[in-house]
Amino acid sequence: DLLQFVDKVPPLYHLDSKVLMNIDSTNMQPESWVTIAEAIRDHYEWYDGFVITHGTDTMGYTSSALSYMLQGGNKPIVITGSQVPMSFERTDAKRNLQDAIRFACEDISGVFVVFDGKVIQGTRAVKVKTKSYDAFESINHPYIGYVEGKDVIYPFAKPEHANHELQCDTSVCTDVIVVKLYPGIKPEL
Prior knowledge:
By secondary structure, this protein is α+β, with helices and mostly antiparallel strands. Helices cover 19% and strands 19% of the residues. The chain has three helices and ten strands. The chain has helices at residues 30-43, 59-69, 93-103, and strands at residues 50-53, 70-71, 76-80, 110-115, 118-121, 125-127, 136-138, 145-148, 151-153, 167-168. Strands 1-3-4-5-8-9 form a six-stranded mixed β-sheet, with helices on both faces. Strands 2-10 form a two-stranded antiparallel sheet. A two-stranded antiparallel sheet has the order 6-7. Strand 8 and strand 9 (151-153) form a beta hairpin. Helix 1 (30-43) crosses helix 2. It is globular.
């Protein structure tokens, strides 16, 4: 259904799609990341790049998890989403999807988030706004690039293209908690 909204893809590209799950991104679990990673691994030799559409609430977590699960490789894995649904008149979904497809055709490797024309390293993408189109930022790392129509602009040297075999490690330890320290916190916590 999403591909019917893509109108700026040059005719040289062939697009296929596969539905892995249809859940709200707030319901993403580590098992979902494993499903995505294994689908990419299982189809890795068939395609030059991958685009994953995803809800924005947990997209940063998914991009980071996939960055660690899918090491090496020589193809772009791009995650995108939108703040406004595709069916709305003033949506960012069409542009984000088209930009993600465009970037997935680059000669680059790794996991990236493409959102609002920005290309962010998968481990650095963080949602910082809940309503603006520029919801994601790259934390403590420069943007990899910018998608402007049919062009990808790299503000620094384009990252080197890896030419390694994809390694997929889907083992996940969920025994992790983030504890915010504050004055007066009990030591036993």
